[in-house]
C-alpha cells in the first residue's frame, strides 16, 4: 500500500495545505518528507521525496525556486511544498506555478502558521500505517502465488478485510530487469546506483498504473503483478498493452533491458500458483529466445512446455550432448562458430542466403560450416527427423545458456 500526494492532502490536520499546481501528479507516491536546507536538492534526494522549501536558511528568490523545481523533476521527487508567510517566502511566483503545472509536478502551498512538526508527524504516521497495510496485502498475495495456504476461503477473507478484491480471473505477469553489470561499467558506481534506483522506481510506478487495485510485488529488479483476464481476448489486450510499452522502454533503458513473461488467461485465485509457474516459464523463454522481442506468453511456448515439464535435468543434458555435443566441444576450443551457424540456419528455415546475411559471412563459408556440422554430429539437416532432434536440442541449449 502506497501513500500518494492525494492521501497526504487528505490527512487530518493538514487542511490548510493547498495544491497550487501540478494536479496531474497527485498519484505520485511519497516515500518520506525532506526539508531542503541547501541551495539545491539534486545531491540530496533519490526520488519519491516530498520536498519542503522554507526559505529560512537560504534566500528563495524566483530563480532559485525555478532551479529547485527543475532539480525536483530531474530527480523524480513526489512534489514540492512551499512554505509561505510574511517572514521569508511571501508569495509563490506565477512563473513557478506555470512551470510546475507544465511539468505535472505537484506544487503545494503551506502557511508558516501550520507547524512543520505537525506536518511531518502526520505524514510519518501515515507512512507507517501505509507500510503495515502494504506488507499485509503483499503477504496475502505472495501466499496465493506460492500456493502456501491451508484454507483458500480464510485467505480470501483476509484479503477482503485488507481491501484486496481477488474475485474473478487473472493473468500473472513476471518482469525482470537485466544488464546492470554493463551499466556499472559506464561510470561512477555511486551515480550508476542512483540511476538504477530511479529506473526501478519508474518501472514500478508504471506497473502500478496497469495494476491499480492489486499490489505490485517487486524486489531487486524483478516484479510480479496480476492483470484481470477473464478470457483469451482480455489476455491478448494485456499482451499488446505491455508490448507497446516494452519496446520504447528498452530503447530508453539500454544497456538495461526488461523481459516479460505472461501466464495463460482465466486463472481463479485457487490456481494463481499455477499461473505463477506459467509466467516464470514464459519469462525464461523471453530471456533466452531473442526472436520473442523480450516478451512471451505461456500459450506461445509450444514444445518448450514439454521441456519445462522434464524434472530430471540430466535427461535434457544427455539429449543435448548426444545431438550437439561435438559442436559444443568444437566451439569451446575454437571459438563460437558452428552453434551460431546452426541457430541462424534454423531461424531462417534453411535459407542459406538469409542465414549468411544474418551472420555477416559469405554463403560459401556458411555452406562449408553446415557440411562441417553434419559431419561432426552424424545428422542430416535435410532429414525431417534429424531436424526435429536438432531443433529440440537447440531449445535445451538456449534454455541452459
TrEMBL record:
Gene3D superfamilies: PucR C-terminal helix-turn-helix domain. Residues 338-395 form the PucR C-terminal helix-turn-helix domain. Residues 153-284 form the CdaR GGDEF-like domain. Residues 7-126 form the Purine catabolism PurC-like domain. It holds the Pfam family GGDEF_2. InterPro entries: CdaR-like_regulators, CdaR_GGDEF, PucR_C-HTH_dom, PucR_C-HTH_sf, PucR_dom. Belongs to the CdaR family. This is Proline-responsive transcriptional activator PutR. The lineage of its organism: Bacteria, Pseudomonadati, Pseudomonadota, Gammaproteobacteria, Pseudomonadales.
